[in-house]
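User: I'm putting together a small comparison set for a docking exercise, and I want a reference complex before I start. The sequence is below, and the ligand is FNR. Could you produce the 3D structure with the ligand included, as structure tokens?
Assistant: Of course. I'll restate your input first, then give the structure tokens for the complex.
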Amino acid sequence: MTDWAAFQYEIYLNGLLGKVPRLPTDLSRLAEIAEARLPAGPYGYVAGNAGGGKTEAANREALDRWRIVPRMLRDVGTRDLSVEVLGRRLPAPVALAPVGVLSIMHPDAETAAARAAAEVGVPFTLSSASSTSMEDVAEASGEGERWFQLYWPKDREVTKSFLRRAKESGYSALLVTLDTWLLSWRPRDLDQAYLPFLHGIGTENYFTDPAFLAGLAKPPVEDLQAAVMHFVGMFNDPTKTWDDLDFIRENWDGPIVLKGVLHPDDARRAADAGMDGIVVSNHGGRQVAGAIGAADALPAIAEAVGDRLDVLFDSGIRGGEDTAKALALGAKTVLLGRPWVYALGLDGQAGVEHVLRAHLAELDLTLALSGHATATSITRDDVTRS
Ligand code: FNR
């Protein structure tokens, strides 16, 4: 059982030695600091959204509309934030969301983030579009819990090969992302004509894959453009339907989670298809401009399928209070996105650890001060719409 709130005293005690945290403890401030300190292309890629960014704003508004109603005199002296998710006990209801192309943020990229997650004890989700191969990330993550996110390639052999490699490298769960069959209209990247994939960044899992390489006349080091075009052609397949999930089930024997569900009927279909979980998510507002705020979609979905599969949540989580609200609205665990990516850019592995420890300390204190000694005792009755 980890005393997450102890990070608070560590910070104050360091203050006696004249030290203050290198990054802000209000994690919503990381974006503005990253904008000031990081190059425009990479910062814009992380901050960017579909269209004018209204969906990211809707994610924040949806969470802000809910207010926690604290309860008193409930003995929260001993606390345990652990949760049972996808058949495993996690020390806290937080994991790192899959985020691709991390070498644009920091040279240590995914290995730094995976090490940070393992150090703190939360799951790391590796994106298909990572700039480090899944085997190298597995080595960095060591004994840490790790999940693999699949951008479901058009080519069945490459898909099978990815799943086999992920299994062999110890990734325990598979997150299949459903909302990115095509890349959305992203003005921030378009205005800078910035797309890292075209430079062979974020393609490492493909460029190290025997099934992918079998489709190339020359290896990527000899003909990068041809390799990139081959990647673009198979990155995703917009013709997939629910029936195709059988193929994933046949080729992956661990838990399968569908990421990007926003309608209760789709959540029911996921449960009918025998999936183990879903992530209620709009990809942080990066895919459909004008989409529903993810936290607005969460309660109805949790009500529809919360007893049939594990409901996870992302899109808009910044401070600990946001995670507390998501738990109250029916999520079992949240995925943390942009805050740790900005922190990786600003301070490498230490930055990601800072974000995780700050978020978990704030979550622990928020729950405790609201009368909850566990992550599961907060429910819909403990929040109200303002
Ligand atoms: C993402 N996200 C994402 N999701 C995914 O399934 N595979 C991926 O490779 C990526 N890549 C990615 C890159 C960047 C720069 C961002 C910001 C996001 C989406 C991610 O997993 C998560 O859904 C969002 O980040 C949640 O929104 P917030 O909370 O970060 O705003």
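The longest strand covers residues 256-261. Residues 124 and 146 are 5 Å apart (CA to CA).
User: Thanks, that's exactly what I needed.
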